[in-house]
């Protein structure tokens, strides 16, 4: 089993209505932990907000296939996240229709940008319109509305030929 790195965590997410329009976004610092803990906390926060706002037909999209498998009970979870997973399962039991789907990171840029923004805050932040949502998340939201793909790009180093 591979060791997991303990890192500074943040959660971010977006709630959309059935037509894909923004209902709200959120971002919150989480302290230290693993990326799987951050994924679960973001799911818990998003589902909690959705239920509070009266939504009962939920599609939860995550970019961690492992966490999706834990939620769908396809794979046994690590002992260290059983409590979090139990909290999430309790929330899921309050929905009428629930689907949990894996999406590639490229389809999850809004949540990713919100998660990164959490490192600049000390308290949870909630936004109910796109104008107040952190600037780095806004273009990804607009691309999503247009059903335009986003791509990861890495800068490549140029290797100089030896003399």
From TrEMBL:
Domain RNase H type-1 span(s) in chain numbering: 10-117
InterPro entries assigned: RNase_H-like, RNase_H-like_dom_plant, RNaseH-like_sf, RNaseH_domain, RNaseH_sf
Q: What is this protein called?
A: Uncharacterized protein LOC107009897
Originating organism = Solanum pennellii
Organism lineage reads as:
Eukaryota, Viridiplantae, Streptophyta, Embryophyta, Tracheophyta
- Gene that encodes it: LOC107009897
